[in-house]
Amino acid sequence: MGSWRPSGHETIPAVLAAGAEAHGDRMAVAFEGGSVTFADLEQRSTALANSLADLGVGPGDTVGVLMRNRQEILDAWFAAAKLGAIHVPINTANVGEYLRHQLATAGASVVLADTALAPEVARIAGRLPDLRHLGVASEPGAGAPVLDLPATVTVQPFEGLLSGDPERLPGTRPPRFDDPNAIIYTAGTTGPSKGAVMTQNYLVRAARQLADLRGIVPEDVCYSPLPLFHLNAMLISVLGPIAAGARGALDSVFSVSRFWDRVRSTGASQLAILGSMITMLWNQPEQEDDGDNPARVVIAAPVPADFHEAWEKRFGVRFIVAYGLSEAVPITVSTLLDPSPPGYSGKANPVFDVRLFDENDDEVAPDEVGEIVCRPLEPHVMFEGYYRNPEATVAMWRNLWFHTGDLGRMDADGNLAFVDRKKDYLRRRGENISSFELEQAIMLHPKVAEVAVHAVASDVAEDDVKACVVLKPGETLDPVELMGHCVANIPYFAVPRYVEFMESMPKNPVGRVLKYELRERGVTPETWDREAAGYVVPRRR
User: Fold this and answer.
1) How far is CA 100 from CA 148, 226, 362, 461, in A?
2) Domains of the chain, residue spans
């Protein structure tokens, strides 16, 4: 067992300042619509920090951000860091109650949104008691959105917010390494989604570690099609490259058909994708030029053992596999010099003590399945708890170990293999989905009496979503009508693929639905499949 030791005590503003001094006008991060230099990152975030301070944002305050990948997200994130404030990036697919819950629990007085998404904030503004200012980032060719806002909420054009002093920070205290800097919302398993609080030190330390695993050098370009409300993109394609003097490159969405063209056009030498994307790319027809690309390293998890080595050979890259979650990343790591066997996600990160426990919190033997648990060996190298939710924080730290809710298997050499999810949540195409929130949204349909959501196996890894629905007495409901309700009230990625109307749910003596029985039933002959029916869910990003 390792011993407690001091951490590096790093802040994000120090990383930015060092990058601006060393690299100045070199490109730091590229987006599909433009790019930003190291000097730009420093000056734009300072200017925005001054304007946010004028709006009343200070240490410990939260700033909500609802934008598709663009440089203004970085302005907001780094401005918050300079103020000792907290950046709260929200999933851009969130609408209605999903969006309201996260912004309300974060208590953000300032929310920054792009033109297309600002109306979604306006729709719920009357139910956000802390909201005072809505900053709107314009888009080329788009007019100003028509926003029906309460009289207590002002509209602030983002361009105006960037007119603050770009050279000197407001007269607040200097940011600290232990300042909370981000709240990332994770899918709830027994209730609404929870906001994981992350310090500046945690984010910088994790970004540096993930960069070191890949052997990053200043000449590298780190490409990802993942959104900046995901910790993956924040660390691997932005903060890590900035700290190493390299370059990030971000797209707003993942496209199977043009993925490798984007890798080539960005000159990407390092890639960050999700496990389901690996399968999607593998399932594409082989092309003669599959290996003709500049990439040399892909960081991803989980990587299917069945074609791990064949994938590397076909596309001419090497996998770096790490296991973690928003609350603690990376928990286990592999490197180019010490790769994990196919199907495994590396060995314990030196800053964590990692074990596998049974249901009694007793450690299991090598090669036996147990819940993955960890605890830090340094201060501020994982999350600080769930924002305004001490009960959930204590529950996850049972017996002073952080319980991930994931099941794994560890071999005799200490390599960890992810096995399954113990929690009652789903994961579809890289998105965590709270079954509780999804069920509550479907229950809003006036004809629905009861609903239970569960996962079924997908042909591209991770999960597909099935909703088992009991209607109110005397009611009938067409699946297409239910889909329309879901599209209007649920993020596109959470809309169920399968629907089965049932007379009743299997329950235990105290009335709780036995989801394991529903999972065992799977896709029955009575199950409606929207993909087979040709129903297309519009993407909302």
Assistant:
1) 16, 23, 40, 31
2) 38-200, 425-529
